[in-house]
């Protein structure tokens, strides 16, 4: 039987500030968020909760609860993202990072890569500039400075084109983002993929910096200090809506093994730095060294950085990423030096 799930696109279109509206209706925002992301299955939801959501959206239960697959992932060719926290077509991706850890560079790179797949990009430029904003401006097809400009541009772009909208957290906090969603035609089925950033770095201290998200990308400052980019935290970054629900079984298995290995590697790393690897039991040494190799493999040169780094960019298809990561996890790359895996492409090319 096809899985039942909420029509999240309809909810977000008709109830842009869903967290506030849910609380006003007597619902727990966390419950609504978990239903939207699939963390709580529809079958476990209270009828009262679903009825209130339908009332908020002004729709029937048949419109609110739909059958079939949810929105799919957008393959970016970026190993760390596609493996651990895929960008969802029509979903919301939130980047949480301290300044200087590369979030704007990743945003520019994503716009570049999505353009290769036929996406039209809009950058809702914040009033305040941040390092990396120039690269984003170069990669965006359109730059807007207000909700009105964005809305006008959305109406001008042909309906057959896929759109990615990039914006700063400031427009979420100000309510302008909600106003934009409210300004859209509720009957418009156009898919808009949203990427949200935080140029101030304040989001790292907020439990729910953007409200409900489909993909959560947390940056790791320690990776940045070691020159490993993209500096994506492999344990904290996640895509809840896809975990175990839509990903193919091989992807799920590799993803789970990756998180398990990287979680233990990160626990061991301070001990190794302080006491040396020789103090670890042999089994832990093996795990630590594989974690080192996997961490190095997940680094990747970007297209927009080629002029500065001199390193040729890599687009690694998801099946190849899964094959290589599975090999590292299972010990098939134990003979390859860590340095040779850093900013490399496929293992077979080493």
UniProtKB/TrEMBL annotation:
Name of the protein this chain belongs to: F-type H+-transporting ATPase subunit beta
Q: Which family does it belong to?
A: Belongs to the ATPase alpha/beta chains family.
Q: Which domain of life is it from?
A: Bacteria
| Location in or out of the cell | Membrane
Q: What is its main location?
A: membrane
Supply the alphabetized keyword list.
Answer: ATP synthesis, ATP-binding, CF(1), Ion transport, Membrane, Nucleotide-binding, Translocase, Transport
Please list the coiled coil stretches.
Answer: none
InterPro entries named in the record: ATPase_alpha/beta_chains (IPR050053), ATPase_F1/V1_b/a_C (IPR024034), P-loop_NTPase (IPR027417)
